[in-house]
Amino acid sequence: MSSLYEDFLTSVGDWRNSMVYKCIKSTTRNGRRGIRRWLTRTQLNAHFTDPKIVDAIIVRKETDDYLAKTEIRDHPDCPGLTQYLVLVDEEHTDEDMDEITAKKDKKEKRGKDKNGKKPKKDPKNKRSKKNKGKNNKNNNKNDETEQQQAEKERIKKVISNLSRLIRETNNKMADIADLSTNVQAALKKDLDDCIARLTASRAELQSAVDSSEELFFRSSIWVAMELKAGVLHTSYRSFP
Questions:
Q1: How far is it, in rounded angstroms, from Cα 30 to Cα 6?
Q2: At 160, phi and psi to the nearest 5?
Q3: pLDDT, average across residues 153-165
Q4: Number of other CB atoms surrounding residue 167 within 10 Å
Q5: What global pTM score does this model have?
Q6: What pLDDT shows up at residue 144?
Q7: Closest listed residue to residue 68, CA positions, set 77, 59, 76
Q8: How far apart are CA 84 and CA 42, in angstroms?
Q9: Which residue ranges are recorded for the region named Disordered (predicted)?
Q10: Dihedral over Cα of 80, 86, 88, 93: its sign
């Protein structure tokens, strides 16, 4: 409905100038439909006037499990009196339908020629589009290469910082010589653990640089940053 309203406003109320208009066609259909009713044996005999037909209908319903459950019941007002669901009549039906068909205005047909065929595309346009696509791909590749190179440079700086941290952490070993034996053992354990983790992280980063694994770069950077934070925390805690 919103599209119709917008089209109505665009055409200033004149549907002949609109891009889409609706053609409503009303149709009427006549038909017949069968009616099924619940009847007793006496009513069946009165309707069909042939006991053999009635017996055949009842036997079929009683010998079929599904029909026995769905088409046989006790009379609602007289328990013990059986009723059978049987097709006994038909009725006439009238159906009214409103069929809506959408048609396109001539404005949308300008892209076609007199024979109703779409004009052929210019081969030059195809070539230009292909060339544009190739250029875009090349530009994307160049951008990816520059990003990877910048990522590598950033990783190398992190590796350099890790090496510096490892040296500084080793130098801290000499500063704890004057402390008590228990304190020295605890601090030495922490420092050794930090050095081991920093060394492992540096090795992973170097391997990532060599193999150009971008996703691995980023995960390794975060590990290195966390290790760096841990080393600094240990250093400041131990040596005020």
A1: 38
A2: -65, -40
A3: 76
A4: 10
A5: 0.29
A6: 63
A7: 59
A8: 11
A9: 96-152
A10: positive
87: Cβ contacts below 8 Å, ≥ 6 apart: 34, 35, 36
- Taking alpha carbons only, the member of 174, 197, 194 closest to residue 184 is 174
Residue with tokens 């009303």: 26
pLDDT in tens, 198-207: 777 777 777 7
Q: Please give the single-letter amino acid code of residue 187.
A: L
CA atoms of 161 and 72, how far apart (whole Å): 90
Q: What mean pLDDT is predicted for residues 78-96?
A: 77
Instruction: Dihedral sign for Cα 46, 47, 53, 54, please.
Output: negative
Please give the C-alpha separations between residue 201 and each of 15, 82, 170, 213, 229, in angstroms, as whole numbers.
73, 88, 16, 15, 13
